[in-house]
Amino acid sequence: MFHRLRGRSRTDRRSFGRPIQSVVLAVVLMVSAAAGVAAQDAEPTAVVSTFQDKLLAIMKDERSLGFEGRYQRLQPAMEQAFDLEQMTRIVVGARWAKMSEAEQRQVVDLFREFSVSTYASEFSDFGGERFETGGEQVRAGLGTIVETRLILTDDSPIALNYLLRQTPAGWRIVDVYLAGTISELARRRDEFASIIRNQGVDGLIALLKRKNQELAGS
């Protein structure tokens, strides 16, 4: 995407160890629960900003990471920020309802790998870029748009707008609009449509496997 756009005794320890351990465990559980609630309650702009910060950090470390390193760090970041299962359903379209559960799981897994691999391949170097976050626009029946710009050091800024929807896990990205208006999911859906129509689900699975292999070797 980036390249396309540019001291106690033993007795004391026996006496106090369990209470202390209980207190520590309680504190850990409280902190973990609070973190989980905070992640779910994060507003759309916070979800996007957190992801972009992680993306920039990975870009800055690209020389030491390589593709596999970038992939390993991007995967949890993208799974936290994106609703990759819903995105898979969108790109597959009407054919999704006719697929078996096994086929759906396989396609979701392959599309998840494809999405992470695409970012790991495209955002592969750093030259002083940064992100600027704009406002939010609520689109009735669609979701919330978060406007951002990728600021380049040697070219004009590029608009990158994110569409987010509320899910049981909180706000999640379901689409990215390149140059502000070009839907990444619509582009992928058009790309996959003829494959699904002419070769069915097996053709789509083969295509995603091939693309993942190509991206890993890029």
Number of helices: 7
Mean pLDDT comes to: 83
Main sheet: which strands, in order across? 1-2-3-4-5
Query: What composes the largest sheet?
Result: 5 strands, antiparallel
Measured as a percent range, the helix fraction is 55-70%
Write out the CATH superfamily name of the largest domain. Answer: Tgt2/MlaC
CATH fold name of the largest domain: Nuclear Transport Factor 2, Chain: A
Helices and strands in order:
Layout: H1 2-5, H2 10-41, H3 44-60, H4 62-81, H5 84-92, H6 101-122, E1 130-139, E2 143-151, E3 158-167, E4 170-178, E5 182-183, H7 184-216
Antiparallel strand pairs: 1-2, 2-3, 3-4, 4-5
In short:
The chain is built from 7 helices and 5 strands; from the N terminus they run ααααααβββββα. By secondary structure, it is an alpha+beta fold. It has 2 domains: 7-39; 44-216, Roll (Nuclear Transport Factor 2, Chain: A), CATH 3.10.450.
Structure description:
It contains 7 helices and 5 strands, in the order H-H-H-H-H-H-E-E-E-E-E-H. 63% of the residues lie in helices and 18% in strands. The model is unreliable at 7-40 (pLDDT under 50). The protein is globular and about 45 Å long. The chain has helices spanning 2-5, 10-41, 44-60, 62-81, 84-92, 101-122, 184-216, and strands at residues 130-139, 143-151, 158-167, 170-178, 182-183. The longest helix has 33 residues, at 184-216. The chain has a 5-stranded antiparallel β-sheet with strand order 1-2-3-4-5. It has 2 domains: 7-39; 44-216, Nuclear Transport Factor 2, Chain: A, CATH 3.10.450.710. The protein is an alpha+beta fold. Helix 4 crosses helix 6 (101-122), helix 5 (84-92) crosses helix 7 and helix 6 packs across helix 7.
